[in-house]
Amino acid sequence: MRHIFSCPLRWSDMDAFGHVNNAVFVRYLEEARIDFMFRLAPGDGSPSFSGGSVVARHEIDYLRPLVHRHEPVTIETRVTKISAASLTVAYEVKDADQIYVRASTMVVPYDLDKGRPRRITDEERAVLETYMDDSAEKAVAV
Question: Is residue 140 pLDDT above 50, yes or no?
Answer without folding.
Answer: no
